């Protein structure tokens, strides 16, 4: 993935941020994911969407160029360690991330929500997330646009029976496992750019992301 996962969650419980911004959650299906990405039922048969580099001026990009970086893939593992959610993307260098922290009033034994402060997007291609063990997970997504706001984020609950591929330019985080841990297969463009938003730096707020559809 790259991009987000670098911010500190040490002060996530600091009252100076006030109540976190609640993110609505919906069940992930073909209809709800329209515009965000596509359902993946076969990892091996799914091709990563690669975007050709944008045309910078009036001279066109030569056909067959600007999209030749290839694909990288590997395991993407997730683990709840105490009140922290950790992720490791073996497909990219420096792929170890802290991606969330439980709110102070949420039990480690019954994880209902997670505090999140970052998201990123790739302008040059999609990214595939495919669960290996069929365990449920939540994806935090937002539609394209650099003028992102807190109200633009949505959480999607996946029951674990299928994966998904986000489109290029879709704001996202690594997924959040509902269970204690999860292993995914992932793949994306080998050469990929990242654009990042930190909601604490820009808006002074954490996002409160549900981990269950039982609202």
From TrEMBL:
GO terms for biological process: allantoin catabolic process; purine nucleobase metabolic process. Keywords: Lyase, Purine metabolism. It catalyses: (S)-ureidoglycolate = urea + glyoxylate. One of its GO terms (molecular function) is ureidoglycolate hydrolase activity. InterPro entries: RmlC_Cupin_sf, Ureidogly_lyase, Ureidoglycolate_lyase_dom_sf. Gene3D superfamilies: Ureidoglycolate hydrolase. It comes from the Eukaryota. SUPFAM superfamilies: RmlC-like cupins (SSF51182). It holds the Pfam family Ureidogly_lyase. Residues 1-21 are annotated as: Disordered. Homodimer. This is Uncharacterized protein LOC106179424.
